[in-house]
Amino acid sequence: MGTIPGWYSPVLHLAVPTVVVLGVMAGALSRLGSPGLLDWLTVPLTLTGAFAFEWRVHKSVLHRRTRGLDLLYERHELAHHVIYTYDDMTMRSRREWWLVLMPAYAVVLVALVDIPLTFGVGLVFGRDAGCLYLATSMFFFLTYEWLHLAYHLPQDSFVGRIGLVGRLRELHRRHHDPRLMKRWNFNVTIPAFDVVHRTLWSPEREARDDARRAERRRRREAEAHG
Is residue 61 part of a domain? Predict the structure, then answer.
């Protein structure tokens, strides 16, 4: 708890990014004209890209030290995963939201990335597609934050008792097993790309993966002693 500043306000940490995101979404949706079917396809395509991005960053940046991005790795694997484990996922107080939510300035970084992409989509596919892209990408960011926070709330809380949250929480809890965290369950929201990449954990998948890894090691050792 010593790493949490004395001035920290958990309510503001959640509220400010939430208000910013909802404001951007409202502004984007208010600019819609008469979107057609192709424009609405922007929504599932943007979500698909977001799920893929989430999976890749979680696997390759948050669980692997990368030059220039060391802070993300240290904050995630060396702090978040040490404090919250498979057997103890629950936050003790609201002040621990500091350890679960993204830094408040992350919403600004997301907006800085989204603005040029929004203009790009708008130039290529039209204003309505651009507006839907912006609203959907910001919605994904907010969903990620809310769901991740929900997974670390007490299971007997109002949010923790919601059926879908409980099922997704169990997937995330498996990821917090130190033995599994570098190999399984990298999607925090919907496990779409864990399914695509076959990283959605089950005892059977783990056994098959272990067998393949052992076979590759045997082949390398055989080639080395050739």
Answer: yes
